[in-house]
From TrEMBL:
Biological processes, Gene Ontology terms: amino acid metabolic process
One Pfam family this sequence matches: Aminotran_1_2
Similarity field: Belongs to the class-I pyridoxal-phosphate-dependent aminotransferase family.
Protein name, as recorded: Aminotransferase
Organism: Pholiota conissans
Length: 499
């Protein structure tokens, strides 16, 4: 209740008692009191699941169909479209929500690919495990980068090419049996849908503590394996959305679990986005491949691809690396799930995996994205939004809103208010992997956060931070009575030709 006077400009526009009462009324405690949260709940797949069973008639349009729930980026894009966003007018918006890096040229990086050859053989289906030459190139890159001098080396038989990271996750989930699967909160939003859709995976959560910078407690994980019978540990590393990374001895000990009867599945899509303090460390990256002893005995599984590190999200060429017998299983699940990755683009990807080419890409990427990170952090700090735990990796900022007055201090409302300013961020609750959606959203450990992406070009980042500044200025000038309501619920179409 003391927040409102703090935001008032000194000497003018002092809120009346009526305004102050409105501010107090906006200090929500439960999702049912918040318009932003009710919009979220009414979207397909976001109703609580399980007993007592709740029914959303709008979702039951086709018998037997159950909505899995949308990922954060999809939900936020749909809400942005309801507020006038379209991909043809995206230059008017600052999209700090999309989990994708800028795809254009950056300083000192190799030239961007701009042509794709189409030999007649490439017009055929590719094998469901991928083109052999590309699989060999992936194995060679990992051996050269992480496994020099080790007796056990990857071959093409340890690599499966997949059409995107989600396809890799889906293929894996389809071949995992009835097991307890450990995951952490917060983590990548798509894990929520994977754990919901593939019901043989029994989800077991672990809440990471911001007081330890969201560090995974390996000793606690070992105890959980013993006491709860965990068979699979699933995690992103580097971590989306917190921007932290498991490395060194912690990563070594995590990989060691895969020699003790537990499969370790690591999503390493941000393995190049590491921001060293010393320039001599530029170009270094992080991968569990460094700590695997036997590539066919250690049950550590790596998912990565061109999407983030090579900044080619539209190519949908990614890979899963693991023991040979896993690759055979993934070939079988791919035959009925997705059919395989794009054949011509697999061929075009081969020269991009040359170790020297990859090294130059890493150095340029780390320099450029570190500059963007520091720029956005400095601008947020100038607005009074200092980031508790600055990212040391990825291109995400995990921004805590708790110090803002209610209702701006929760991610969903902050997100909706920014839509009015033509800016997209991702509310933190999407990273609360909660497959049953039963918890009161206000009780989520991620409720007071948003994820900001510094993946886009610098001008887009400045547009987005300018929008945040306008929201804070509006709150400071007029108090909180105009926040938390009046959100557009359906797509607004001004031009019938756009329908």
């Amino acid at each position: 209740m003391a927040h409102t006077p703090h935001l008032t400009e000194s000497g003018r526009n002092t809120p009346s008692f009526r305004d102050f009462v409105f501010d107090v009324m906006k200090h929500y405690k439960h999702e049912k009191e918040s318009e932003a949260h009710q919009i979220f709940r009414k979207a397909g797949g976001h109703q609580p699941k399980g007993l007592p069973q709740t029914v959303n008639i709008e979702e039951e349009t086709v018998p037997g169909i159950e909505h899995p729930g949308s990922t954060g980026v999809i939900y936020c894009s749909d809400r942005a479209m309801a507020n006038g966003f379209s991909y043809t007018s995206s230059h008017e918006w600052a999209n700090l929500g999309q989990g994708a890096p800028e795809v254009g040229a950056i300083p000192d990086a190799p030239a961007r690919p701009n042509t794709v050859q189409l030999p007649s053989d490439s017009l055929e289906y590719a094998p469901t495990t991928g083109v052999k030459a590309l699989r060999e190139a992936v194995a060679n890159l990992y051996n050269t980068t992480y496994r020099e001098g080790k007796k056990s080396q990857y071959t093409y038989e340890n690599v499966c090419i997949v059409p995107g990271g989600r396809a890799g996750l889906s293929r894996l989930a389809a071949v995992i049996g009835d097991v307890y699967t450990s995951y952490q909160v917060p983590d990548y939003t798509a894990y929520d849908q994977v754990l919901s859709a593939f019901k043989r995976l029994v989800p077991v959560p672990t809440a990471l503590d911001p007081k330890t910078k969201y560090r995974l407690d390996i000793e606690q994980t070992k105890r959980d394996i013993q006491t709860q019978g965990l068979a699979v540990v699933l995690a992103s590393n580097p971590r989306n959305p917190t921007g932290q990374v498991i490395k060194g001895n912690d990563l070594k000990e995590l990989v060691a679990l895969s020699r003790e009867g537990t499969s370790v599945v690591l999503d390493e899509f941000y393995s190049w986005y590491i921001y060293p303090e010393n320039s001599s460390d530029l170009g270094k990256s992080v991968s569990s491949a460094q700590y695997i002893e036997d590539v066919n005995e250690d049950s550590t599984v790596i998912i990565d691809g061109l999407t983030k590190n090579w900044r080619l999200p539209g190519w949908r060429v990614c890979w899963v690396i693991g023991p040979k017998n896993l690759i055979t299983a993934l070939s079988q699940s791919g035959s009925f799930l997705d059919g395989g990755a794009n054949h011509p683009l697999q061929l075009a990807a081969i020269p991009l995996l040359d170790p020297e080419h990859a090294r130059l890409e890493r150095i340029a990427l780390q320099k450029h994205f570190k500059t963007k990170r520091d720029h956005v952090l400095a601008r947020l700090k100038a607005l009074g939004l200092e980031v508790d735990i600055p990212p040391t990796s990825t291109f995400y900022i995990w921004l805590n809103l708790e110090k803002l007055p209610s209702p701006l201090n929760n991610g969903l409302t902050f997100f909706e208010e920014l839509l009015k300013e033509k800016t997209i961020v991702i509310p933190g609750i999407f990273f609360d992997i909660n497959p049953s959606h039963r918890r009161n959203l206000f009780n989520s450990p991620c409720h007071h956060f948003v994820r900001l992406s510094f993946g886009p070009p610098l001008k887009d980042l400045d547009m987005g931070v300018d929008a945040i500044a306008r929201v804070l200025k509006r709150a400071k000038k007029s108090g909180m009575k105009d926040f938390g309501e009046g959100y557009k619920k359906t797509i607004q179409v001004e031009d019938p030709a756009q329908v």
